[in-house]
């Protein structure tokens, strides 16, 4: 609910714009063009998407991540293929814009002006200021025309999404059924037939091992591996050698005063939400408002806000934290909520405030006045930014000079020595294995595997650095001879045979179980232990003492009557289970009544998001989309 209240945009586009407003962009200059690709990365109904388009979108997404997650961004980005996500975003946008035009959806010039004028970063004293607008965009190397096109596209996509989303409604019965499924508590008993119990009695002969190897040779195939030497141009180390002058610091401060060193007023507040769905009846709204009023009365008498939030609030994102919303500034919350919060003093309670989500009670805890850093306060940050800029410029220049020299026959060892850098040799590595000191770096790996022996390539690397790499050796994909992997082949044969025997045993037992009474008899006759769990939430998809097991928790919901046995053997990690559902308890009427409004609103939001995803998937199915993986893999992202 908190995420819905905050006015986040529907796509990466507006997040990027907000990132532009709040953080300085550190460009690599001409770096991207040096590696530019000519071949299109994809086509959408014949319309080309070029590598520059994808790279630009990926770079913007990276900046947005850095703005939203700060120091944690680097770790998160390690697990994201930005090029693929950027391409997917471009495809979505092009299909969505075309569909919006087909449906006659249009953002008027006046709507666009109003949206831009409402951005706090473009305001001075609460009013839109043309100079501030132009200064913010100029500081981030974006023209008004570029920004307005981006903003118009974003608003158009919002119109389209709203059109799709508003067709989705949730009835009370649908909400109750979903709530019961999510909050149902079950207890199970199970018989485990472990494949490990059979492995000890399996002793394959050499002839069987050889036959298994012959029939399954490709299972033991080793992937292609390469070995490279590389030079790492670390911009942080290079930047440390630079000391910005007082004049440079002062000029940067003045140029970025409004965007980097001026902070708007912020408040930290808590809230309690009594949720009401958009289609709620007048009676339901009155009841929710009355409930909020009673809670407010308790608070006025000295009740603990955090305790009542945990007890009554329908906002799942904050109720377990005492309703704490953290700090926010104007423009980040919906208008009625924002107006109320910014009118309060620390410790004060609001009246009952109505928004489209329901009824809120707000308590402001802290006010952080608008302020501007002095030059002295800003200097450490400016120095770091200027050092990073200088380091990145030096890194790309050094790499380019060394690449040219290497292509003319210079040895990487000599080039590294000239720079006072290390020449690092990797072990043999495959396309999916992490590289020592580098980790998983798709750009590094892709470049390495495209080189011929002795060839040199340039690549953007981890931690915003640059690499120069040379292929030293290549080991083609191959199947090792049995003599080298005999133990591995034997172990795999034993594992497979043990799992087969365990499965056969489980199937035989399953056939003997016709009802819950048979479950206990079969276990007793075969001297098998029945493991029983205490009641647990089925929605967790986790069975106590086993672990993550969604197949069991999902199947348990359809067993009738209870007690009852799931009518098929369940398998998990080579072990087999016969499971009896001992009890299944839906949430009480009281629990549903308390949670109904908030849950229905949350479910509606989820279903509308799914409807949008399905709508976009349908546009993609009807379009002719061709993606060229090689061209996508060749894109060298410019690091920020």
Q: What CATH architecture of the largest domain would you give?
A: Orthogonal Bundle
Helix fraction? 40-55%
What is the radius of gyration? 31 Å
Largest sheet: 6 strands, antiparallel
Strands, helices and their partners?
Elements: H1 2-5, H2 12-22, H3 31-34, E1 42-44, E2 47-49, H4 51-69, H5 73-77, H6 82-102, H7 109-117, E3 123-124, E4 127-128, H8 130-139, H9 144-165, H10 172-183, E5 185-193, H11 196-199, H12 206-215, E6 225-233, H13 235-240, H14 246-255, H15 257-260, E7 262-263, E8 266-275, H16 282-300, H17 305-312, E9 324-329, H18 335-342, E10 353-355, E11 358-368, E12 371-372, H19 375-407, H20 412-419, E13 423-425, E14 429-430, H21 442-450, E15 456-460, E16 466-475, H22 482-511, H23 516-525, E17 531-532, E18 536-537, E19 542-543, E20 547-548, H24 550-556, E21 564-565, E22 570-572, E23 575-585, H25 589-622, E24 625-627, H26 629-633
Helix pairs in contact: 2-4, 4-6, 6-9, 10-25, 12-22, 14-19
Short structural summary:
With 640 residues, this protein is an alpha+beta fold.
Describe the protein's architecture and organization:
The chain is an alpha+beta fold and 640 residues long. The chain has 4 domains: 200 residues, Triger factor/SurA peptide-binding fold; 116 residues; 131 residues, Chitinase A, domain 3, CATH 3.10.50; 105 residues, Roll (Chitinase A, domain 3), CATH 3.10.50. It is built from 26 helices and 24 strands. The strands form 7 sheets. Strands 5, 17, 18, 21, 22 and 23 form a 6-stranded antiparallel beta sheet that branches. Strand 19 and strand 20 form a beta hairpin. Helix 2 packs across helix 4, helix 4 packs across helix 6 and helix 10 crosses helix 25. The N terminus is likely disordered.
